[in-house]
Write a structure and sequence with these properties.
The chain is an alpha/beta fold. It folds into 3 domains: about 5-145, Rossmann fold; about 150-275 and about 295-325, no CATH class; about 330-398, RNA polymerase sigma factor, region 2, helix turn helix motif (Rna Polymerase Sigma Factor, Chain: A, Orthogonal Bundle), CATH 1.10.1740. The protein is built from 15 helices and 11 strands. The protein has helices spanning about 15-25, 40-50, 65-70, 80-85, 105-115, 125-140, 150-160, 205, 215-225, 225-240, 275-285, 315-325, 330-345, 355-365, 375-395; strands at about 5-10, 30-35, 55-60, 75-80, 95-100, 120, 145, 180-185, 245-250, 255-260, 265-270. Helix 6 (about 125-140) packs parallel to helix 10 (about 225-240). The N and C termini lie far apart (about 60 Å). About 50% of the residues are buried. Bound molecules: NADP nicotinamide-adenine-dinucleotide phosphate (NAP).
Length: about 400
């Protein structure tokens, strides 16, 4: 299975574009057999015309004619939520890359696991919401969950390098030998901005990430540090470590992508330039490493690597996420959903930057968590949190 047959969900996004670059770079190891997006028919068609997957899916059924006209060959065309589930289970596919922003990737990810496909997970939201279910189903079906988020891919590489896999053929390391998982965070564009200036932050300023070029939702999350908060919970599920062993350190250069400290005090780190092709390739070729055209680090040009403690009081997202992760059950899903609503309202200029944290906290305070929820309970909590967050927005306006 050297040439992996991959379906990309979220093909028109930032991760989708990087995944297409990986496929161009290592065609002998990666073949794209399915591409899916939500509504961007032209971009989906352009990608499909180039890589010619056997199936394409556009969730938005009103754009299907646009897609059909823009395609210069005749793949199987799927649409709607049902189409997304179908393309996630293609018989021919080995792996499904879930790169859908928000919660839309959860059902197709679970369907792919049921169909026996390995998952490459960029969509951290699905592990935040339903990490317990996703990891359990993956274990039951003996499929691999390979992290694509650069930090988690880095941790995975450190665990692999240390041969800490717990005698099982999956990505879970051995928590016994891991003392701490240390997630690095660039700190976002406001790393050094005084809190007194936060109220005047505009979407344009928040969308200018200093080191990464990503979709709008994750870029705003990087500015509030909710992205790192979501990643703490993601790490907890992926690597089966308790929340109190997951820590965050600010590292503005985004060269060290994360670290694992072991019980003997040694720390392993993974380093590369900030380009999502690195983690995507490793997820696709794992356990192999193969040559590519990506630039290796030039240490003569790296003047410094800095590390510092996050400003927890000024960026409350980290404490909120720790609380949600430690509470567990439906709490992370509620935090995630309230954050999505708040971020979207900020991008629409309906709330100020600082109100994002306030809305999430208010919704979390109103929630009574359900322990070990099933999928319906998680989706119910997600919907409840969205409605509560909308109410917060209305009362903020009044
Ligand atoms: N970008 C990064 O560098 C990065 C790094 C680590 C993790 N991630 C994670 O990867 C995920 C994707 O991020 P991104 O930055 O690539 O986002 P993005 O650029 O906004 O792209 C989102 C993609 O998801 C598709 N999509 C949205 N809702 C959908 C739905 N309901 N059903 C099917 N497709 C849907 C979009 O299709 P349309 O274009 O048709 O709307 C688009 O292809 C997020 O969970 C993010 O946290 C991203």
């Amino acid at each position: 299975m050297n040439r992996k047959r991959v379906v990309i969900l979220g093909a028109t996004g930032s991760i989708g574009e990087s995944a297409l670059n990986v496929a161009r770079d290592i065609p002998e190891r990666m073949e794209i057999v399915g591409l899916a997006a939500k509504s961007n028919a032209q971009k989906l068609a352009a990608a499909a015309n180039e890589v010619r997957p056997e199936s394409v899916c556009l969730v938005d059924e009103t754009q299907i004619d646009v897609l059909r006209k823009a395609l210069d060959y005749q793949p199987r065309i799927l649409s709607g939520e049902a189409g997304l589930l179908e393309i996630a289970c293609l018989i021919d596919a080995h792996m499904v890359l879930v790169a859908i922003v928000g919660t839309g990737g959860l059902r197709p990810a679970l369907a792919a696991i049921k169909a026996g496909k390995d998952l490459a997970v960029a969509s951290k939201e699905i592990l935040v919401m339903a990490g317990e279910i996703v990891m359990r189903e993956a274990r039951d079906k003996s499929v691999h969950v390979l992290p694509v988020d650069s930090e988690h891919n880095a941790i995975f590489q450190c665990l692999e390098a240390a041969r800490l896999r717990a005698g099982r053929d999956d990505v879970v390391g051995s928590p016994r030998d891991v003392r701490r998982i240390i997630l690095t965070a660039s700190g976002g564009p406001f790393r050094e901005t005084p809190r007194t200036r936060f109220n005047s932050i505009t979407p344009e300023q928040a969308l200018k990430h200093p080191t990464w070029n990503m979709g709008p939702k994750i870029t705003i999350d990087s500015a509030t540090l909710f992205n790192k908060g979501l990643e703490m919970i993601e790490a907890h599920w992926l690597f089966a470590v308790e929340m109190d062993r997951v820590e965050v350190v600010i590292h503005p250069q985004s060269i060290v992508h994360s670290m694992v400290e072991f019980t003997d005090g040694s720390t392993l780190a993974q380093l590369s330039y900030s380009n999502m092709c690195f983690p995507i390739q490793y997820a696709v070729t794992w356990p192999d490493r193969v040559p590519n055209s990506l630039p290796p680090l030039d240490f003569s040009k790296l003047s410094k690597l800095e590390f510092s403690t996050p400003r927890y009081d000024d960026f409350p997202a980290l404490n909120l996420a720790r609380r949600a992760g430690e509470t567990g059950g439906t709490s992370p899903a509620v935090m995630n959903a309230a954050n999505e609503v708040a971020v979207s309202a900020f991008l629409d200029r309906k709330v100020r930057f600082t109100e994002i944290w306030g809305i999430v906290e208010q919704v979390m305070n109103q929630h009574t968590p359900v322990a070990h929820p099933d999928l319906d309970a998680i989706l119910g909590a997600d919907q409840w949190a969205r409605a509560q967050a909308q109410e917060c927005l209305q009362s903020a306006k009044a």
